[in-house]
Amino acid sequence: MSRLTVWHDGDCPLCRREIALMRKLDVSGAIEFVDAAGSATCPLNRTEMLARFHAREGDGPLLSGAAAFAAMWRANPLLRPLGEVARNRLILSVLERLYLRFLRVRPHLQRWASGREARA
């Protein structure tokens, strides 16, 4: 299996939680997590990288949204079956529509998670 690079928003409390969980699950070390909010070099401009979730399998194309999540799931033995199911175009299109809905409520969830972090 080739290495997977995942770009995430290190300033987003939701992203930090999700990436912390994925780091724990990545027992094989197959995923390189890159904070796109930091000083890392990004394949797109920073605004585009922070607006959606991005990943790249090896030297393959840059994946975005549900396709990037599916690639991350495939890189993890525990979540691999879910990532494999997402190779189906119909399943991936449903996941992408759900991801687009999530992006609409993401700002509200970020504010909620920020408030929880401040109280902790």
Strand percent estimate: 5-15%
Helix content: 40-55%
Averaged pLDDT, please? 91
Q: What is the radius of gyration computed over CA atoms, rounded to a whole number of angstroms?
A: 14 Å
Structural class: alpha+beta
Count of beta strands: 4
Topology, element by element:
Blueprint: E1 4-8, H1 13-25, E2 31-35, H2 46-51, E3 54-57, E4 62-64, H3 66-74, H4 80-85, H5 89-119
Parallel strand pairs: 1-2
Antiparallel strand pairs: 1-3, 3-4
Summarize the structure.
The chain is built from 5 helices and 4 strands, in the order βαβαββααα. The protein is α+β, with helices and mostly antiparallel strands and 120 residues long.
Task: Describe the fold and architecture.
The chain is of the alpha+beta class. Helix content is 54%, strand content 14%. It contains five helices and four strands, in the order E-H-E-H-E-E-H-H-H. A four-stranded mixed β-sheet has the order 2-1-3-4, with helices on one face. The model has no long low-confidence stretch (mean pLDDT 91).
List keywords for this structure.
single chain; 120 residues; alpha+beta; four-stranded mixed β-sheet; 5 helices; 4 strands; 54% helix; 14% strand
